[in-house]
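> run fold Putative heterokaryon
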Amino acid sequence: MNDVASTRAEAHDHIQRLREARGIKGDYNDISNGVLVSSLNEALNLLSDQLYTTPTHFFLELIQNADDNTYPSGAVPRLHLSLYRKVGKEIFRSDCNEIGFTFRQLDALTRIGKSTKQAADGCKGYIGEKGIGFKSVFKVADVVRIASGCYEFELNRRNTIGMMLPIPCNFPSDDRIKNHTQFLLELKRNEDYRQIRGDLKRLGSETLIFLRKLKQLDVSINGERKTYELRTDNWNSNFGGETATISETTDQQTKKTKYMIERQTVADLPPDPRREAVATSEVVVAFAVKDRITPIVKPR
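> ok
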């Protein structure tokens, strides 16, 4: 079996094979509700509800996942997070211009605790390493629709172990963006919509500094769009070291902020089964500055 589906039919076959590997054959609604399955379903519900205290943590997981993605050569890695109302529904959607899922990534996304993230040269980056965090999306949505490459499917919490069992379905055509991996959530509660809106507005542009790949982050709330773009300079002679510049663009204006960056690698980390093959970690500190000797001080 190819690891990357090249047609919708092949993608459908991948999903069916994945379901069969988990003991589910035949009709998508024909799932035994024995003790083991029932217990797993209850554990999944408990996990998605109590994994994090705030319902909005899920979009940080989506940012982290986007930073792990593989991007086409020459493309600027970017992620667009949008919140909007459509035909009486409240929608959260993420769009990423990565190359698309492999079968292994599809499998990891719908499993518990499995991940395709590997430590590069024994070095730990800035993000979590467990795919388990994706389950936090079900704190705010019962149904998550996903499109990536030739894969189009949904995960439905209302079905027995539905968070683990993808069902092929067409992604809404009005929302589909070619050559993007997309997640679409129909929010369960207006309260979640309001909290997501507030947290998106407070999402700091500095987030980009501490990511490895993402260079552009777009945030849209009911059509009002803000774009953050990151430019780095490994050696800026005017500042005597590494700098980063973040451009924050709205419809009215563009504001630029420069940061001085300091990095320190911590070596010989003690073995930890939760972080296999990770021996070092990098600590990064960023200071907003006007010039080499004048910091920008903001209330927190």
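The two ends are 52 Å apart (CA to CA).
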